[in-house]
Amino acid sequence: MARLILENGDELAARIGANLVLDGIAVRSLDAERDVPLPRELFTTDAERLVQGADIVIELMGGIEPARSLILLALGGGADVVTANKALIAAHGRELSDAADQVGAQLLYEASVAAAIPILRPLRESLAGDHVTRVMGIVNGSTNYILDRMDRFGESAEDAMKLASDLGFLEADPTLDVEGFDAAQKATILASIAFHTEVPESAVYREGITAVTLEQITAARHAGFVIKLLAVAERLAASDGTDGVSVRVYPALIPREHPLAAVHEGKNAVFVEAEAAGELMFYGAGAGGNETASAVLGDLVSAARRHVVGGPGIPGSTHAEFPVLPVGEVLTAYQVMLEVRDEPGVLARVAGILAAHGVSAASVEQNTSEEGRATLVIGTHTAREADLAATVDALRADDAVAEVVSVLRREGRA
User: Fold this and answer.
1) Binding-site residue ranges for NADPH
2) Candidates 2.60.200.30, 3.90.1170.50, 3.30.70.260, 3.40.50.1110; correct CATH number of 330-410?
3) Which terminal residue of the chain, N or C, has fewer Cβ atoms less than 10 Å from its own Cβ?
4) Is 162 a catalytic residue?
5) What is the C-alpha separation between 209 and 353, in angstroms, rounded?
6) At what angle do helices 86-103 and 181-194 cross, to 10 degrees?
7) Catalytic pick from 162, 186, 228, 267?
8) Which has the closest alpha carbon to 186: 142, 154, 150?
9) Is the pLDDT score of 413 beyond 90?
10) How far is residue 130's CA from residue 193's CA, in Å, rounded to a whole number?
């Protein structure tokens, strides 16, 4: 980042209308080896002193502390802050935005979601006059790479994950990615901006991809679907009529005709639905040093222009304050794979269980799997999540069902 600021100083100055002066770079160690040679006098271990003397602070250290305290210190002094820290924004975005608003400063974090893809600014500014109804996206490139390898090349989850790790897509501890925590943080940020309401990370329903098997991938392909880890945020009405928002992360079936189905390897894409604008899709690199730097530099130019032109920062918009509804209120559809006894009457019993919970089958496929057993793959019509989940529980408890092999939700329209 510092190298790009120094190397592109003249070009950035032309866009901003003034020269950028890099005051310093706060580091943990002055003697650590660095990939890019930079003037030694720029480095300091006194982050607080550096922050207090700056007009614009770029935070790329990650984590909650000391990043939170340093950003609050910067904002308290009237400095604008640019950050790529998704964990911090997801956990303390409201607090930091309020601190910026109190002094007329600007908090910018485009790089916190989907790296180089411009999605937060379009939601905050370009669609500010529209009514966004749904945001659905692939916002974790690591899990998309794994699922894509399984789908396109028939690799097992273990082999695909090992390759992703070897290529640097996964950290040494891949839990943040494969269990959906990273995507949940990004979903929090997307939903908060799209629906002008505070969405705590704890309110996001989350499932990862560790239970997705090659058998499920193959069955999905056979049925015309692909499995993607999706972050979904939408406006909806609860069963009691309450307007609210739902935010969730889970692996789901997407029709192969849907634009998100064509997002391969480590790419990201966010699909937005709005009343006036209709359907919009934002696609590109969701991770990487240069890609993240692009988004950070964009925010830096925006902040610097404000200092040149004058005026307060644009305040955050959380005026709606919709309640975050539990996942049981979501309208979705299931694909359920069952191992059942291969005998007369079983299909009728399964159909009766669905009907008892107000769920209807859109498709049923039966194959004999072994002696005395059959595999049923049932696709349901859209129903409320709570009713679908209760249906699966009832199937699991029925004597005719040996095993509920898998349950996947279906999202998106072809």
Assistant:
1) 86
2) 3.30.70.260
3) C
4) no
5) 28
6) 30
7) 186
8) 142
9) no
10) 13
